[in-house]
Design goal:
alpha+beta, 18 strands, elongated, 6-stranded mixed beta sheet, 2 domains, 10 helices, single chain, Creatine Amidinohydrolase, Chain A, domain 1, binds zinc ion, Creatine Amidinohydrolase
């Protein structure tokens, strides 16, 4: 039902690795160390499981990229899309992988390390090279994956369109009398049906459960009169979707409609603040100002948004204090909410990309409150 976009090539991965090494040098780092996880996927297309056996990509400006891998996993690494853009250095069980890695590193250097590198591997390296020091990659190079190229944008757009199809379908199912977990299963099945390879979350927060933004889905039976927060997403063709809408079972009360209207206006204001040169915190401030104006400031208990790409949550963050300017190609959520403990919650979320002319949404389903059965 959807065609697979042309895969990224070894040249694409080579360019990403070169850019990462140069950004690290500009930041005063001796290099970048990348463990299995989203950074490794982004830089090489290789997706090994993280294990106690060391796999580590070493990037340093002026040096060819080297991927340290366990010998038994080398055949898999050779199949990675970016493999021809790097040198494999394998190590066999019984050898010390940190001793194998050490000669690749400047022994007095400071290195950016992917956030999800296991502590045991970093401590192993540090023991081997006591003169080295380390900084989290999202702290050192938070914008490494933030600006998407044309083909990444197409993937994110396709993921958003698939999530929109899911929302259209879920409005047709019965809510009243079913449990939150039943709706969550429906959402997961629909995400897969519309081309996702991975479901990351299916939030169904009915009635008072909607007031907890981190409520996933539980055994509560949904009833007529409930507001229901829906927030779902995952990966399609390796890129993320993440959208929220809040629906009502039967006709909403005036009070419920009013709260929803405030969130909708706040979401529109946040979207309206998206343009090149504005800062991340400007987006948060624009959305928050509307909610505060209507007296719900203390009920908007999270940041306005987060970046999205090869993961569903990553920098940049739309949060007070984040002065990072917006750049065309950045993609992130705009998702204000109001949470009324003991009563209900409302959240509306779209993925938005920055263009020269302002924001462009990857989620385009109606933001008016839908009535479900
Ligand atoms: Zn109601
Ligand atoms: Zn979400
Ligand atoms: Zn989100």
């Amino acid at each position: 039902m959807s065609t697979m976009p042309a895969p990224f090539t070894a040249d694409d991965y080579r360019a990403r690795m070169t850019r990462a090494a140069e950004a690290a040098a500009d930041a005063g780092l001796a290099g970048v160390l990348v463990a299995p996880g989203p950074d490794l996927v982004y830089l090489t297309g290789y997706r090994p499981a993280a294990t106690e056996r060391l796999t580590l990509l070493v990037l340093a400006a002026g040096h060819d990229p080297v991927l340290v891998v366990p010998t038994l996993e080398a055949p898999d690494a050779e199949e990675a899309p970016g493999a021809s853009a790097l040198t494999l250095r394998d190590w066999t069980d019984g050898r010390d992988p940190y001793a194998v890695t050490a000669p690749l590193l400047d022994g007095d250097g400071r290195f950016g390390v992917s956030d999800n590198a296991w502590a045991m591997h970093l401590l192993g390296l540090q023991k081997e090279l006591p003169g080295t020091s380390y900084v989290a990659l999202t702290e050192a190079l938070p914008m490494l994956r933030a600006v998407k190229d044309e083909r990444e944008l197409l993937r994110l757009e396709a993921a958003g369109a698939a999530a929109d199809e899911v929302y259209g379908e879920i409005l047709q199912v019965r809510f009243a009398g079913r449990r939150e977990t039943d709706i969550a299963s429906d959402l997961a099945a629909l995400l897969m049906r519309f081309g996702h390879s991975q479901v990351d979350f299916t939030v169904v927060g009915s009635g008072p459960n909607g007031a907890n933004p981190h409520h996933e889905a539980g055994d509560r039976t949904i009833a007529e009169g409930d507001m229901v927060v829906l927030d779902f997403g995952g990966l399609k063709h390796g890129y993320g979707s993440d959208t929220s809408r809040t629906v009502h079972v039967g006709e909403p009360s005036v009070a419920e409609q009013r709260v929803h209207d405030v969130v909708r206006e706040a979401q529109q204001a946040g979207f309206g603040a998206v343009r090149p040169g504005a800062s991340c915190q400007d987006v948060d401030r624009a959305a928050r100002a509307v909610i505060t104006e209507f007296g719900y400031g203390k009920n908007f208990i999270h940041r306005t948004g987060h970046g999205i790409g090869v993961t569903t949550h990553e920098p940049p963050y739309m949060i007070e204090g984040e002065e990072q300017p917006l750049v065309p190609g950045m993609c992130f959520s705009v998702e204000p909410g109001i949470y009324l403990p003991g009563r209900f919650g409302v959240r509306i979320e779209d993925i938005v990309t920055v263009t020269e002319d302002g924001g462009r949404r990857f989620n385009n389903t109606p933001r008016e409150m839908a009535v479900v059965e």
